[in-house]
Backbone:
């Protein structure tokens, strides 16, 4: 079963605009990760944020984590057509299974 | 450094058949995890192997089984295929058991007719 939901399910923006995706999860976590997937191929790791962190940056990416609300957001600034992909959040539980539990994903379309 | 590779890329089987999917982990990685991704969904964890032993399993029936070899490559076997087994199968490798960044292969697209 999926850990949680991502919002929106689909997002279409113009090149140069910012894209924000949200992720909610259900259980307490050790860390939360964001992955990108192009056209049903393999996933590429973007960024990891630990449960004791609130914000993290990597290039044009900014991730926030609110453990009290069990939610995270991914901001992509100054988007490019090449950012068109599906984006998934994935959580790692702080107890038990050492595997990623993925959300349902946000499909981002960046129009040139 | 070689990344994670999977074979075959695509596969078509009929209901009731058996299939074996293969994964070669990234150099230096001793942990392999397998995921099933149905169309339009996020990946779901099938199981994980660490140093040739199963180290956790998701909500998949016993007809999903696996192996990890001494060189840390891995196989996913599915018996008695069902139509709902049609999906993209992804393997991911990582160094050790801590679930930080996982390195995914390109996946095998399985179609069951």
Residues:
């Amino acid at each position: 079963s999926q850990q949680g939901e991502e919002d929106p399910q689909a997002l279409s923006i113009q090149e140069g605009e910012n894209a924000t995706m949200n992720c909610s999860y259900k259980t307490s976590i050790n860390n939360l990760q964001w992955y990108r997937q192009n056209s049903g191929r393999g996933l590429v790791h973007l960024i990891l944020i630990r449960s004791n962190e609130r914000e993290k940056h990597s290039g044009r990416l900014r991730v926030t984590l609110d453990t009290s609300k069990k939610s995270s957001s991914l901001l992509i600034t100054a988007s490019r057509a090449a950012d068109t992909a599906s984006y998934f959040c994935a959580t790692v539980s702080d107890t038990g299974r050492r595997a990623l539990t993925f959300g349902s994903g946000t499909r981002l379309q960046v129009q040139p | 450094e070689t990344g994670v590779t999977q074979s075959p890329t695509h596969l078509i089987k009929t209901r009731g058949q058996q299939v074996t999917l293969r994964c070669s982990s990234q150099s230096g990685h001793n942990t392999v995890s397998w995921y099933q991704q149905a169309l339009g969904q996020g990946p779901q964890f099938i199981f994980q192997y660490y140093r040739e032993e199963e180290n956790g399993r998701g909500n998949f029936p016993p007809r999903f089984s696996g192996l990890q070899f001494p060189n840390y490559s891995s196989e996913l076997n599915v018996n008695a295929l069902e139509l709902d087994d049609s999906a993209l199968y992804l393997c991911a490798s990582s160094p050790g058991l801590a679930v930080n960044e996982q390195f995914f292969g390109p996946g095998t697209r399985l179609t069951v007719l």
Residues 28 and 95 of chain B are 7 Å apart (CA to CA). Chain B has a mean pLDDT of 94.
